[in-house]
């Protein structure tokens, strides 16, 4: 029997589209609904309880759209809300930290893994827990690199500022001896071309959780007999909580013209939106 209900995916902005892309590539017959919470972007510098409340409200909305599984395509929201969300909702919920940690443990040869992320993710120490859960013998260096989020969101992932920040990061993790770098923010895979230029194919493996998260979703659908089963490719639906034009512009810059137009879903009232980014 096939289950044609959609899969819900969310992030604070365009970063989670890196996960959406991998889901779409691996599971082309699944209906995907992506929600970007631009009303509260960025999540990284916010208090954990704030991000948790946003995430729970979004998951509630996605569950209301009859989703069969929800992917928290944001490391900061995964760190802040995954456990609370699993306690509250019956729908299977998948975060991006455990898949990224697993990929890192499989990639490292010297047992030294560096993780770059937002401040919220670093402060939560969830990568340390997840990596050491997978292999307690692995050492972890966590670095917050919050400026990269705005740079990516602005479509400047290949620009000189990204280049300079990443060069500094690579010097620091090289000094510490990491042979593996986890891109612990769903915006960061868009920096891969800049990173590859800096690494010159060197000794550091770069891992992100987009592909491993998609693979995990595929396994969960199979084990729980939730797969849509169809062969036909279904286009994703895009929702934003604010600034649909800004979202469409960043998404087009980053992913070309391949994405549909986003629809505005005002999940928060005007008062709650007073702290929104322009
Ligand atoms: N995409 C988010 C993450 O993976 C970060 C963006 C933000 O700060 O809102 O952590």
UniProtKB/TrEMBL annotation:
Q: Which Gene3D superfamilies does the protein's record reference?
A: 3.40.50.1860
The molecular function terms in GO held by this entry are: glutamate racemase activity
Q: Which reaction does it catalyse?
A: L-glutamate = D-glutamate
Question: Which key words tag this protein in UniProt?
Answer: Cell shape, Cell wall biogenesis/degradation, Isomerase, Peptidoglycan synthesis
Residues of the active site:
74, 185
Binding locations of substrate: 11-12, 43-44, 75-76, 186-187
Q: In which pathway does it act?
A: Cell wall biogenesis; peptidoglycan biosynthesis
Its transmembrane ranges are: none
Q: EC number(s) for this protein?
A: 5.1.1.3
Q: Which Gene Ontology BP terms does the record give?
A: cell wall organization; peptidoglycan biosynthetic process; regulation of cell shape
- InterPro entries (alphabetical): Asp/Glu/hydantoin_racemase (IPR015942), Asp/Glu_race (IPR001920), Asp/Glu_racemase_AS_1 (IPR018187), Asp/Glu_racemase_AS_2 (IPR033134), Glu_race (IPR004391)
Q: Which family does it belong to?
A: Belongs to the aspartate/glutamate racemases family.
Briefly, what is this protein's role? Provides the (R)-glutamate required for cell wall biosynthesis.
Protein name from the UniProt record:
Glutamate racemase
Organism in which the protein naturally occurs:
Candidatus Amunia macphersoniae
